[in-house]
Design goal:
Layout (H helix, E strand, L loop, with lengths): L4 H4 L3 E7 L5 E7 L1 E2 L5 E5 L4 H8 L2 E6 L10 E11 L4 H13 L7 H5 L2 E14 L7 E5 L2
Antiparallel strand pairs: 1-2, 1-5, 3-4, 4-7, 5-6, 6-7, 7-8
């Protein structure tokens, strides 16, 4: 599987979760992806999506650049699970991945300390790319 690096270099993804009442919720979050396609993001543990994840880790994510016409539509749609990254080696590796993409976070230690680090792990990915033709799609299922 080869995902376009320019899409993984985008800064923001839309994270969709479902609350205990069945209502959907979407939020934009900064993300950094590692070589294993784990998408890391920070969030306040009291945010709607963080509370949703505690009850139901299943989520959907989209990544797409802004476009002006239908021929430019291009992005990723994903389904998978979100978990909170535990303190220790995994957290440090995720932090390094995130801080290398967003160096400004090194100056936000108090803000980072008051948030949780989460990882989205996709189990299904769809590339949509109208550059290749209207409605072009390519899909992968991950183990």
């Amino acid at each position: 599987m080869h995902l376009p690096p320019d899409l993984l270099s985008l800064t923001t993804m839309t994270l969709a979760t479902t609350g205990p009442d069945g209502r959907p919720h979407a939020a934009s979050v900064y993300f950094a992806a590692d070589k294993n396609l784990r998408f890391y993001f920070f969030s306040d543990v009291e945010s709607q999506h963080s509370r949703d994840i505690q009850d139901n880790p299943l989520a959907a994510v989209t990544l797409y650049p802004e476009c002006k016409n239908w021929q430019e539509i291009r992005g990723l749609q994903m389904r998978g699970e979100v978990d909170r990254v535990a303190e220790g080696a995994a957290w440090q590796a995720a932090w390094q991945c995130y801080a290398s993409k967003f160096p400004f976070v090194l100056d936000l230690e108090s803000v980072i300390a008051s948030n949780a680090l989460f990882a989205f792990q996709p189990s299904w990915i769809r590339l949509v790319d109208n550059h290749r033709g209207f409605g072009f799609k390519q899909e992968w299922t991950l183990p």
